Every structure is written in structure tokens, then in C-alpha cells.
């Protein structure tokens, strides 16, 4: 178990700054997720933590040791790869035993620890198999067992679920979360999938173009995104341009929204689709907005309804699809509706 | 409509099968013909045979040129294969995993002998060896060491091609995994990388051996009078007479290579190798 301290980490390839002055701390036992689109520098950061690529400048401390220049085999980290990276010529048992053999652990102890590690991921019964005889989900579980068998200081996960199909992804994701909680190992995971990130992370780091955009819990980042990029990367959003005027937010299109809490300089607000209430009333109550339904997209558990408040101002509203006659079934395109956008659903964005 | 489709499909399948049969025929017919010829009793090869005999195989035992040629070819091929591998494995690692300028150039250089006609290589080496001999009085032309060195040149392109192809198939993350689990680069090489490319190394050894064992053009310039290789011994014999003895020698030579392949197959399935 260990803390991680990253200071002013930079990685450049020629003129391209893959990671640009990144500083971060990971607390002992914390599950930190680096999240961002491809090319944002999250994997490069993880590879520098693991020692697979060398930092251009900056410093990395793990468990109080400066590991910046240390080769990977001396860092004592467990790494799980997107493509599993099992040793194809070794059995499941030997794969998991590999780090123990490198540490000259006695044979009886190796057998015991391998069994325990495979037990953690319910793979004991397949220890004699070769990796190619296992399914993707099984291979990834073996890879996780291998990365934990030698009690590393830190666990690094590089897109561990990306190669799995949707159902398995959920299963392995829960398993990773439980293992992490039970072992209490400091963990850093890289992913481009925001659902995945939010479901496992104690803390999220959203990155873009090598630069950290925001650090915070899933809730903080979802409810209070620091900028446009974070807001749109995490969940879907409605952006509205305008200005604050007399305790209200006045949209460019001339519509007034509740906004007494907004800073006076606000030029742009964000409204989450699930925070807008929609009703079939033809005439809006005070505080409500009149709108017209333009499009209804059925998505299973919920529907997305696009409404037009005035020409040029369209909002997306998310409706839960309850059992029986739900509102989304009754709504028709072209139908007039009333919208309620509560003050707590509206927040300002810095540019 | 359905019937017509059926008919077309059947025709396509038949055409496919015919192609396969023709292909195998072209490959196997010469070999089968040589085996057949080796049992002819006429001392001048002619069809139809007047009768069959095993005499040519019996007579082989007395032919010291062939026996010596065989042993020479064998030892040269083994030496060339071992040295070729010793050069090619590290070179392939450097080319695929290394990160230095001119990697492509080194690859081109090492595989270049494949693109130059063997007869040109033989002639060029002969001239160079003579020049070196005159300058340094090191005996190279007509010496075993010179011949072995020339054959190393023949094995390297095959070894490099096969090993680099195998190495490119080994995911870098597998090596990274080994390192993160506590294996130094050297331990990673021996416990992970080399076992992973083992089939490629076996294939390289096989190809190198066969290319060297059967080579005529390069050897022609470089053998010393008393130490011919088997292909040269066969050529020299053919200059004087054409009798089924030649066929018998070829059958034995083919059998040795086939035996080698079968033994290799026991350790590394050849279908996985090539």
C-alpha cells in the first residue's frame, strides 16, 4: 500500500506535448480514475507511472520513493493491460506464479499464494489451462490475479474492460471494485468510458490534450463541471448562452430562466437533461416555460425529448420510462408542453 | 434459379479441387519420378525401364565422393545455421524492439543477399576472398571457413525475415507485463520473449539449413578440390554420366531432409512454425 505523488510531469514527443505539467496525489487505498478521450495523455501518464516510458521532466514518488528514473521491474507495481498481456506459453498457474518466482518465493508459498489469488477472481479451477484456452473475461481475471499475487504497492489498470463485451464489462468492473475495496490497494485506472469511471472511482481526473481539466468525486464532476469540456464529456448537457439580468439568466433568444445564484459575469449556463421537468399543461404556470415537442427518442429505460422553447433555443429533456402509461408514451411531436427548470438545475460555466 | 446456383457452386468447387490436385501434382511429380528412376536397372536413363533393381543404392556405399559431399554439406549447413541464428536473433531484437536511426537500413542490408542472384554472390565472394588472401595471406578461398562464411550469408536473410515476423507478432505489452511483475530486461528476454518467438527460431533454423544444404551456386566458387559439397558432387557426376545413381543420391538427400522435418515436428508442430 502506498501513496502516489506526481509533480509537474511532462512527456513530449517532438513538439507534441502528450502530458503537459501534470501534478496529482493519490491517497493510500484510493481508487483514482484518469478519464478522457483518446489522445488526452491518460495512458501516457499511466505508462510513466509503470515506468514503460520515461518522463521528459517532472517527478513521480510512489510510497515515498522517487521512482522517476527507476526501471519497471524495480517499482513493485501490479499492471493490468487492455489486451490482458498474459504469457501465451505459460499456464494460468505459471502466469500468476511469475512475479513470485522473480521474487524467489519458496515453492510451497507460491502454490498457496497463486491459489489464493486465483480464488479472489474465481479462477482456481482453470489453473492448468493455457491463456488461449480461456475467454476474454477469464483472461482478464487471470491478469488481475497475476497483478495482485505479489502484493504490489499500487495497482495500475490500463483500459482493463475495453476488450470485453457489454455484459462481462459490468461483471469484471464490479469485481475490480470489490477487490480494490477488500484489499485496500491504491489503484489508478485509465478509461475513456465515463460510466465505467464514475462507477468505480473514489476520485476522477478528467484530462484533455495532456492537461488536467478537473479533479473530484463523480458527483462533484457531474454536478459542478469546471468547464464546457468536462460538462459535455461527462453525461449529456444543454448549453445556453446569455447573460445575468435582474436575478435572472436571460438567454440570447430572449427567454428568462431562474438564475439568482449565478455570478453576475455568467455568459453561459449548463442544464442537465434529467433536471428539466416536463408537463402536458398547455399554458405554463408562473416560473414555467412554454415549449413545443420536436422529437422523441426512445432509449429503453428512458426517452430523450427534444423541445423547442423559441426558435433557436432547443433543449433535450430526459424522461424516465415507468411501467404502463408513462408521459413519454403520451407525448406527440408538435404538442405544446410546459417546462420547469429549477434553480438548482442551472449552473454557470467558466470558459 | 436455385438449381442453377447449385450447379454453379458445384462447378466452382470442382475447379477448386482440380487446381489443388494440379498444384500437388506439380510439386510431387518430379519427386515421385526421381524415386521411380532410382530403381531402374538400365544404366542409361531411358523409358520404359528394362527392369528394376536396388543396385544403385548398394553402389552408393562405395561412392566416397557422395558420402564426403554429404558430410561436408551437413557440417557446413549446421555451422552456417548456428552462426546465422547467433547473428539473426540479436539483430532481429534490435531491429524490432530497438529505437535507433537506420533500423530499416540494417534490415535491408541483412536481407539483401536474398535479392542478389546466388551466382553473383558466389563470384563476388570468390574475388573478394582472393583479394583478402593476397593482402593478408589468410586462406579463405577454397577453405572451409570461407565456405561456411559464405553460407552464413545465405542463412541470415531467411532467419531475419522469419524471426522479425514472429517478433512483431509478440505484443509489447506482454514484455511490459513481465517487467512490471519484476523481471529485468534480460530475464524478460529469456523467460518471455525467446519462448514466445521459439517457433520462428525453429523455422529460421530449418529454412537456413535447407537453403545452405542445397546450395550449389555459391559453393561452386568456394569449395576446395578435395572437399566438395553434395550438390557439387552430383553436378560433377552428371558431367560424365546420367545413370539412376544420381536419382538414388537425390532420394537419400531428400529422405534426410524429410527426416529432419519430421523430428522437428515432434518438438514444434510445423503447422505453427510457417
Notes on the protein architecture:
Chain A is of the alpha+beta class. In chain A, about 25% of the residues lie in helices and about 35% in strands. The mean pLDDT of chain A is about 90. Chain B has about 270 residues and is mainly α. The radius of gyration of chain B is 24 Å and the shape is globular. The two termini of chain B are about 45 Å apart.
Feature tags:
heterodimer, A: alpha+beta, 6-stranded mixed sheet, 5-stranded antiparallel sheet, 34% strand, B: 274 residues, 12 helices
Summary of the model, kept short:
The complex is a heterodimer of chains A (351) and B (274). With 351 residues, chain A is an alpha+beta fold. Helix content of chain A is 25%, strand content 34%.
Q: Give the DSSP E fraction of chain A (strand runs of 2 or more residues).
A: 25-35%
Oligomer: heterodimer
Largest interface: A-B, 28 and 20 residues
- Shape type of chain B: globular
- The amount of helix of chain A comes to 25-40%
Order of helices and strands of chain B: HHHHHHHHHHHH
Reported for the largest beta sheet of chain B, the result is: none
Number of H/I helices of chain A:
9
User: In percent, how helical is the residue content of chain B?
Assistant: over 70%
Order the strands across the largest sheet of chain A as they lie in space: 6-7-8-3-9-10
Q: Regions of chain B with pLDDT < 50 over 5+ consecutive residues? A: none
Q: Report the principal-axis shape of chain A.
A: elongated
What Rg of chain B, in angstroms, do the CA atoms define? 24 Å
In N-to-C order, the SSE pattern of chain A is EEEHEEEHHHEHEHEEHHEEEEEEEEHEE
Tell me about the biggest sheet of chain A? Answer: 6 strands, mixed
Q: What is the CA-CA span between the terminal residues of chain A?
A: 39 Å
Amino acid at each position: 500500500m502506498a501513496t502516489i505523488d506526481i509533480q509537474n510531469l511532462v512527456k513530449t514527443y517532438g513538439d507534441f506535448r502528450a502530458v503537459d505539467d501534470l501534478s496529482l496525489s493519490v491517497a493510500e487505498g484510493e481508487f483514482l480514475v484518469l478519464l478522457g478521450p483518446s489522445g488526452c495523455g491518460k495512458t501516457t501518464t499511466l505508462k510513466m507511472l509503470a515506468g514503460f516510458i520515461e518522463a521528459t521532466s517532472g517527478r513521480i514518488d510512489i510510497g515515498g520513493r522517487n521512482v522517476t528514473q527507476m526501471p519497471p521491474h524495480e517499482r513493485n507495481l501490479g499492471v493490468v493491460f487492455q489486451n490482458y498481456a498474459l504469457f501465451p506459453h505459460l499456464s494460468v498457474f505459471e502466469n500468476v506464479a511469475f512475479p513470485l518466482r522473480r521474487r524467489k518465493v519458496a515453492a510451497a508459498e507460491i502454490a498457496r499464494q497463486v491459489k489464493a489469488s486465483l480464488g479472489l477472481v474465481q479462477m482456481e479451477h482453470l489453473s492448468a489451462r493455457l491463456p488461449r484456452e480461456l475467454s476474454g473475461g477469464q483472461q482478464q481475471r487471470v491478469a488481475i490475479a497475476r497483478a495482485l499475487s505479489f502484493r504490489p504497492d499500487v495497482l495500475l489498470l490500463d483500459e482493463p474492460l475495453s476488450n470485453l463485451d457489454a455484459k462481462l464489462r459490468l461483471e469484471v468492473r464490479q469485481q475490480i471494485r470489490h477487490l480494490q475495496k477488500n484489499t485496500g490497494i491504491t489503484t489508478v485506472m485509465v478509461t475513456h468510458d465515463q460510466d465505467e469511471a464514475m462507477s468505480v472511482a473514489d476520485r476522477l481526473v478528467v484530462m484533455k490534450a495532456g492537461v488536467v481539466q478537473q479533479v473530484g468525486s463523480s458527483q462533484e464532476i457531474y454536478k459542478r463541471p469546471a468547464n464546457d469540456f468536462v460538462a459535455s464529456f461527462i453525461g449529456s448537457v444543454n448549453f445556453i448562452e446569455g447573460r445575468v439580468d435582474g436575478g435572472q439568466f436571460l438567454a440570447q433568444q430572449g427567454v428568462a430562466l431562474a438564475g439568482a445564484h449565478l455570478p453576475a459575469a455568467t455568459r453561459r449556463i449548463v442544464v442537465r437533461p434529467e433536471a428539466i421537468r416536463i408537463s402536458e399543461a398547455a399554458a405554463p404556470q408562473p416560473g414555467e416555460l412554454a415549449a413545443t415537442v420536436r422529437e422523441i427518442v426512445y432509449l429503453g429505460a428512458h426517452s430523450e425529448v427534444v423541445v423547442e422553447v423559441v426558435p433557436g433555443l432547443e433543449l433535450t429533456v430526459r424522461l424516465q420510462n415507468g411501467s404502463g402509461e408513462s408521459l413519454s408514451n403520451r407525448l406527440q411531436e408538435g404538442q405544446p408542453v410546459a417546462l420547469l427548470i429549477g434553480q438548482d438545475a442551472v449552473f454557470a460555466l467558466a470558459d | 434459379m436455385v438449381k442453377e446456383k447449385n450447379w454453379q457452386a458445384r462447378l466452382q468447387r470442382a475447379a477448386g479441387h482440380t487446381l489443388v490436385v494440379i498444384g500437388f501434382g506439380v510439386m510431387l511429380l518430379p519427386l515421385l519420378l526421381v524415386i521411380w528412376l532410382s530403381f531402374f536397372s538400365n544404366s542409361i536413363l531411358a523409358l520404359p525401364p528394362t527392369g528394376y533393381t536396388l543396385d544403385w543404392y548398394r553402389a552408393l556405399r562405395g561412392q566416397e565422393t557422395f558420402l564426403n559431399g554429404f558430410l561436408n554439406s551437413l557440417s557446413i549447413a549446421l555451422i552456417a545455421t548456428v552462426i546465422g541464428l547467433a547473428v539473426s536473433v540479436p539483430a532481429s531484437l534490435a531491429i524490432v524492439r530497438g529505437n535507433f536511426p537506420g533500423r530499416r537500413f540494417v534490415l535491408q542490408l541483412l536481407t539483401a543477399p536474398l535479392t542478389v542472384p546466388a551466382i553473383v554472390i558466389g563470384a563476388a565472394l570468390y574475388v573478394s576472398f582472393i583479394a583478402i588472401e593476397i593482402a593478408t595471406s589468410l586462406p579463405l578461398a577454397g577453405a572451409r571457413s570461407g565456405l561456411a562464411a559464405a553460407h552464413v550469408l545465405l542463412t541470415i536473410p531467411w532467419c531475419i525475415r522469419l524471426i522479425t515476423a514472429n517478433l512483431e507478432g509478440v505484443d509489447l505489452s506482454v514484455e511490459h507485463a513481465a517487467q512490471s511483475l519484476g523481471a529485468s530486461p534480460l530475464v524478460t528476454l529469456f523467460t518471455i520473449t525467446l519462448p514466445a518467438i521459439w517457433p520462428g527460431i525453429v523455422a529460421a533454423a530449418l529454412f537456413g539449413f535447407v537453403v545452405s544444404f542445397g546450395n550449389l551456386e555459391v559453393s561452386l566458387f568456394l569449395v576446395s578440390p578435395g572437399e566438395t559439397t553434395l550438390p557439387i558432387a552430383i553436378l560433377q557426376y552428371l558431367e560424365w554420366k546420367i545413370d539412376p545413381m544420381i536419382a538414388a543420391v537425390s532420394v537419400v538427400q531428400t529422405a534426410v531432409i524429410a527426416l529432419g522435418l519430421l523430428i522437428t515436428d515432434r518438438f514444434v508442430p510445423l503447422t505453427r512454425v510457417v
